[in-house]
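[audit] Reproducing an earlier prediction to check determinism. Same input, same settings, fresh worker. If the tokens differ from the archived copy the diff job will pick it up downstream; this log only records the rerun itself.
[audit] input (90 residues):
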Amino acid sequence: MPTQKLTDQDIAQCLLKDQKFMCDMINGSILEAQSENLRRDWTTCLQNSYRIQKQVFDAMNQKGWYQPAKANQQQLTQAQSQFNMQQMQQ
């Protein structure tokens, strides 16, 4: 049975997926932190994870491996309206 080798693109996709997961987990930890010091430390970790995720995203985007669709004006307007409505309800 032939073995399948991981490509650079495969590895980059795994890194991006893992960084997104890490950001989700750290965000949950921030929300649950009972101490301000712990919350601050987790926030620093989250900022670092965002930075790494952005670096992986930029590298993949530059190589054409990850190109999310751009939102059109109607989608932007709709998202802004939904956000504004949520803000008013709070």
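[audit] rerun output stored. Observation attached for the diff report: The two ends are 59 Å apart (CA to CA).
[audit] end
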